[in-house]
Every structure is written in structure tokens, then in C-alpha cells.
């Protein structure tokens, strides 16, 4: 079922019902007490100052002191509960977004840069969570207005009715004034998230950009994106300023009317001097709840805009659907492609028998990418099928497919932490490290496998990163392992060692090597040649080396 921005907000609030309720009660007590302060001062004037009683004066001053102590306590506790609700709600939203992004069916990344998803999972989640922190203050503002109206009614019916009947139109006008802010806040967040996504991509590809001399083009691109974001931010800031100014003007007019009516009543003798002081004090106090309404309304407008962006991510359709079929356990690893068609692939059919080390040479990089997507069920074929142990993968849940078939992409990233911590599946496998020549990498590092690596492993060389990523894939010991060009950044001697180690370690397990490396292909039991997205040949590396198209792809 589709989730709307309104539903995201509702779930965020109901999920924190208890702390939000406690915060609302405590802050309502605080605002109600704030409204009583000018009333107590008016009582002091009428009963103590006017009567000249010192003992009465001391008593009411003590009452005032107790009131301020209660105000301080209720505000601190209410703010604490509200902040707790806001942070927990934002945390829950981050988890929801993370679960959607990491869902085996994929799809959340479609149309979104990585940085955009990060921005939605941080900035937008925080804005929606913050709604839980501001709603109690909105309730408190209403409580303050209600106490003020009741007190004014006891002093004078016209004053009380003025506040009671004037508040709803004020709140409705505040809602209308917040609409432009909501629209511009959504545009601001979209532009900001896109700029963050572009920056993330540029930083990730910094070495490549420097290598091809494209730094200026990259800077120009980010400058244009950043300027778009700046313009959207300025528009939102202008909307915020107009919103706050308009509400302040409305509030000032309303308070002036209350003070004018109270002054006329005092002049006519309908209320006492103390009541007049209390009425003027309450009129000044009314600035506080209306300022709260202005702040809450602005936060709600931004929260609604962010909730809509979160809903778009949560509603993103999966790239592949869930299935009910299952692959037998333990999996034998018999892979068969039948008349497979997707993207650059056209009527592709071959098989990898259980325990076979199969090489696949694709003359078109796009065909290799499409093949990897279909084998790992990152995407389903447009025509034909991919099966493992006679079970069509399009009928199997993606999470189960990934338990059986591990696709190690050419550009697999490492994570910040130690080399050892990048083996997230469990303890280090000495056999996997040896087969991928990671033991040589560890020997060259200052602290071996305990050496810290930076984000995406950028502190390592390209060849070192590839070997660690390969060892990580080998350590999983998946029934079917698909490797895409795992040795492009290593020297020929190391590549030959990896080829021999890979063949030995994966003996009895199905392995598909999508590569153009002669060393790896020579270690394969059989090689399939894909030319122009179609099967062009099949045989051993030595047999296919006699073909011009094969030599052009592998030996050139």
C-alpha cells in the first residue's frame, strides 16, 4: 500500500505517543503557569499594595516564587521529553529508510543519487522527527491561550470572548500563510539533496577526474548545482521571513485590540487597577503563544515537505518482485541461462555445471553488466530465464538468491575500518586471503590486517583494494560465485597466482568469471564468448584463442 507524506507524519507521531503526550502535558502546565503570572501580579496590587498589608505582600510573593519554580521544572522536563520523542522518531525513520534502501528487491536508488538518499535519511528524517518536538509546544500555546481567555472572562466577558473568538481565525490565517513556506521548503530540500548527491559522486571519482584532467568541468558542474541549491534556499528563506513577519504583524494587531478593549473597560470602571495590570500583562503574554504558533507552523510546513520526500523513497517500487519458490539446500550450483534477453543481451543461452569454473568474455561492457544483474537478480530478464538447480530465479525471493549466488562486482567498495573488519561475514579465512594474495597486502601494511583503511578503502592502492574485495567474496564460500574482472589492477605475476589460488579454492563450487584476463581464462574449465550480446563461441581458452574476435577482446 502506498505511503503518503501525511501517513509518514502520522506514524512518526503515533510511534512516540507516550513521550509526546508527557511533553505536551508538561509544556501546557508551563504555558498555563506563564499566563497566571500577570494574574498573580494583579492580585498582589489589589490585595497587598493597595491594602498596604506587608504579610499579604510576602505571602503572594512566595506564591509567585513557587509558581516560577514550577514553571522552570515543567519546562525542562517537557523539553526533555519532546527532544527525546523527536530524536527517537528521526531514528525510526532512518531505520525505515535504511531498510528500504537495503531491501533485497532494490529500487529505492532508481532516480536518486547516493548523496540524495543520504540527505533524505538524515536531514529530512530529522525534520520529520522534529515535528514530535514542536507539537507539544503547539498544545502548550493553546493551553496558554485557554487559560488567558478563562481569566479574562472572569474579569470581563468582552475581553474573554475577544480572545476565544479571535484565536480560531488567527490559527487559520497562520495555516494559510505557511503554505508557500511548505512548497519552497520542499524545493529547497530537493535541490540540497541533489547537490549533496553530485558532491558525493565527484568525491568518489576524484582520482578518475584528476587522471583525465576533468577537474574544471567537475567544479563547474558542482558550481551550477550548488547555485541552484542556493537559489532554492534563498527562496525558502524569503518565504520563512515573510511567514514570520506576517504572523508577527497579525499577532501585534490582535494584542493591540485586546489592550485597547481592556484599557477602555478600566477607564469606565468596569475592572480594577489590578485587573487592568493583569489584562495588559496577559495581552503582552499573548505574544508568546502566537510566537510559538509561528514557529510550530513553520516546522510543520518543513516537516510535511520532508515527509513527502521520505514517502517517495518508501514507495519506490522494487526492481524485482518477491517470489515463493525456493532453491534446494544445499544448492548444487547448476546455473542455466535459457534464451536470455535484457538490455544488451540477446537470446543468450549457456550453463555452468556444478563445480565448474566457467569463464565468460563479453566484448560489450554493457552486456557484462546486464549479465551480472540477471545472475544476481538485481534485475529480471525481459525474455528467457536464469535458473539455479532447475529453479527459475525470477520466482525466488531476492534474499534467498543472494544466499546462493554471490555477485562480486568489479567496483565493489571497501568500508572504513580495518582490513579485517571488511570481512563482515565472519572470521578471517586464511585460505581466501592466500587465494586472493591478501597475505602480501597485509605484509606491506604497517599493522597487517589490523591496519585502518579510509572510506571506500582509498588509503589502499587499486590492486590492494581489489585483492581485499576478492578475498571478502571468496570467504563467503557461496554455492555460486560470480566475479567480474577481479584482477584488472594487479600485476601479471600476482594475477597468475590469484588464478591458480582461485581455481584451487573454488574446486567443487560453481564459479563464473566475467573477465577478459588471459590468466584467469586460462584457469577456467570452459569459456563462453559473448559478442554483440549473443553467444559467439564456446570452448577452452586455448581453443578460442584462434578466433580473431576472441583475441581482440582478450589478447589485444
UniProtKB/TrEMBL annotation:
<feature type="domain" description="ABC transmembrane type-1">
    <location>
        <begin position="22"/>
        <end position="302"/>
    </location>
</feature>
<dbReference type="InterPro" id="IPR039421">
    <property type="entry name" value="Type_1_exporter"/>
</dbReference>
<keyword id="KW-0547">Nucleotide-binding</keyword>
<feature type="transmembrane region" description="Helical">
    <location>
        <begin position="245"/>
        <end position="267"/>
    </location>
</feature>
<dbReference type="InterPro" id="IPR011527">
    <property type="entry name" value="ABC1_TM_dom"/>
</dbReference>
<dbReference type="Pfam" id="PF00005">
    <property type="entry name" value="ABC_tran"/>
</dbReference>
<dbReference type="GO" id="GO:0005886">
    <property type="term" value="C:plasma membrane"/>
</dbReference>
<keyword id="KW-1133">Transmembrane helix</keyword>
<feature type="transmembrane region" description="Helical">
    <location>
        <begin position="20"/>
        <end position="45"/>
    </location>
</feature>
<dbReference type="InterPro" id="IPR036640">
    <property type="entry name" value="ABC1_TM_sf"/>
</dbReference>
<feature type="transmembrane region" description="Helical">
    <location>
        <begin position="159"/>
        <end position="177"/>
    </location>
</feature>
<dbReference type="GO" id="GO:0005524">
    <property type="term" value="F:ATP binding"/>
</dbReference>
<keyword id="KW-0472">Membrane</keyword>
<dbReference type="InterPro" id="IPR027417">
    <property type="entry name" value="P-loop_NTPase"/>
</dbReference>
<dbReference type="InterPro" id="IPR017871">
    <property type="entry name" value="ABC_transporter-like_CS"/>
</dbReference>
<feature type="transmembrane region" description="Helical">
    <location>
        <begin position="57"/>
        <end position="78"/>
    </location>
</feature>
<feature type="transmembrane region" description="Helical">
    <location>
        <begin position="134"/>
        <end position="153"/>
    </location>
</feature>
<feature type="transmembrane region" description="Helical">
    <location>
        <begin position="273"/>
        <end position="296"/>
    </location>
</feature>
<feature type="domain" description="ABC transporter">
    <location>
        <begin position="308"/>
        <end position="556"/>
    </location>
</feature>
<dbReference type="Pfam" id="PF00664">
    <property type="entry name" value="ABC_membrane"/>
</dbReference>
<dbReference type="InterPro" id="IPR003439">
    <property type="entry name" value="ABC_transporter-like_ATP-bd"/>
</dbReference>
<keyword id="KW-0812">Transmembrane</keyword>
<dbReference type="GO" id="GO:0016887">
    <property type="term" value="F:ATP hydrolysis activity"/>
</dbReference>
<keyword id="KW-0067">ATP-binding</keyword>
<protein>
    <submittedName>
        <fullName>ABC transporter ATP-binding protein</fullName>
    </submittedName>
</protein>
<dbReference type="GO" id="GO:0015421">
    <property type="term" value="F:ABC-type oligopeptide transporter activity"/>
</dbReference>
Amino acid at each position: 500500500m502506498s505511503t503518503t507524506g501525511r501517513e509518514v507524519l502520522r506514524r512518526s507521531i503515533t510511534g512516540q505517543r507516550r513521550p509526546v503526550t508527557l511533553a505536551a502535558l508538561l509544556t501546557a502546565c508551563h504555558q498555563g503557569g506563564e499566563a497566571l503570572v500577570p494574574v498573580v501580579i494583579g492580585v498582589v496590587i489589589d490585595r497587598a499594595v493597595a491594602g498596604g498589608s506587608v504579610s499579604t505582600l510576602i505571602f503572594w510573593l512566595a506564591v509567585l516564587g513557587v509558581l516560577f519554580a514550577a514553571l522552570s521544572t515543567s519546562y525542562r522536563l517537557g523539553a526533555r521529553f519532546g527532544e527525546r520523542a523527536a530524536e527517537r522518531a528521526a531514528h525510526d525513520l532512518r531505520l525505515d529508510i535504511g531498510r528500504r534502501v537495503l531491501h533485497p528487491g532494490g529500487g529505492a536508488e532508481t532516480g536518486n543519487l547516493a548523496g540524495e538518499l543520504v540527505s533524505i535519511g538524515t536531514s529530512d528524517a530529522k525534520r520529520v522527527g522534529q515535528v514530535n518536538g514542536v507539537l507539544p509546544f503547539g498544545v502548550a500555546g493553546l493551553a496558554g491561550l485557554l487559560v488567558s481567555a478563562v481569566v479574562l472572562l472572569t474579569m470581563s466577558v468582552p475581553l474573554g470572548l475577544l480572545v476565544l473568538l479571535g484565536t480560531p481565525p488567527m490559527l487559520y490565517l497562520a495555516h494559510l500563510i505557511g503554505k508557500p513556506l511548505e512548497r519552497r521548503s520542499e524545493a529547497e530540500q530537493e535541490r540540497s539533496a541533489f547537490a549533496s548527491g553530485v558532491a558525493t559522486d565527484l568525491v568518489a571519482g576524484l582520482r578518475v577526474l584528476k587522471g583525465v584532467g576533468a577537474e574544471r568541468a567537475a567544479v563547474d558542474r558542482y558550481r551550477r548545482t550548488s547555485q541552484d541549491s542556493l537559489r532554492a534556499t534563498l527562496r525558502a528563506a524569503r518565504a520563512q521571513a515573510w511567514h514570520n513577519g506576517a504572523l508577527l504583524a497579525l499577532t501585534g494587531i490582535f494584542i493591540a485590540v485586546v489592550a485597547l478593549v481592556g484599557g477602555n473597560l478600566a477607564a469606565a470602571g468596569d475592572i480594577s487597577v489590578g485587573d487592568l495590570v493583569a489584562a495588559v500583562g496577559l495581552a503582552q503574554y499573548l505574544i508568546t503563544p502566537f510566537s510559538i504558533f509561528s514557529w510550530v507552523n513553520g516546522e510543520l510546513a518543513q516537516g510535511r515537505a520532508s515527509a513527502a520526500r521520505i514517502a517517495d523513497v518508501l514507495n519506490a517500487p522494487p526492481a524485482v518482485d518477491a517470489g515463493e519458490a525456493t532453491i534446494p539446500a544445499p544448492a548444487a550450483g547448476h546455473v542455466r541461462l535459457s534464451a536470455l534477453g535484457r538490455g544488451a543481451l540477446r537470446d543468450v543461452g549457456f550453463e555452468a555445471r556444478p563445480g565448474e569454473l566457467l569463464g565468460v568474455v563479453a566484448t560489450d561492457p554493457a552486456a557484462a553488466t546486464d549479465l551480472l544483474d540477471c545472475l544476481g537478480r538485481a534485475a529480471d530478464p525481459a525474455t528467457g530465464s536464469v535458473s539455479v538447480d532447475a529453479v527459475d530465479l525470477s520466482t525466488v525471493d531476492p534474499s534467498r538468491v543472494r544466499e546462493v549466488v554471490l555477485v562480486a562486482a568489479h567496483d565493489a567498495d571497501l568500508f572504513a575500518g580495518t582490513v579485517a573488519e571488511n570481512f563482515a561475514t565472519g572470521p578471517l579465512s586464511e585460505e581466501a586471503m592466500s587465494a586472493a594474495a591478501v597475505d602480501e597486502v597485509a605484509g606491506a601494511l604497517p599493522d597487517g590486517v589490523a591496519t585502518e583503511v579510509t572510506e571506500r578503502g582509498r588509503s589502499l592502492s587499486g590492486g590492494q583494494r581489489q585483492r581485499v574485495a576478492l578475498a571478502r567474496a571468496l570467504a563467503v564460500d557461496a554455492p555460486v560465485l560470480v566475479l567480474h574482472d577481479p584482477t584488472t589492477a594487479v600485476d601479471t605475476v600476482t594475477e597468475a597466482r590469484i588464478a591458480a589460488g582461485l581455481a584451487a579454492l573454488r574446486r567443487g563450487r560453481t564459479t563464473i568469471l566475467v573477465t577478459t584476463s588471459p590468466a584467469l581464462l586460462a584457469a577456467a574449465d570452459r569459456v563462453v564468448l559473448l559478442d554483440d550480446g549473443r553467444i559467439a563461441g564456446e570452448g577452452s581458452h586455448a581453443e578460442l584463442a584462434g578466433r580473431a574476435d576472441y583475441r581482440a577482446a582478450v589478447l589485444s
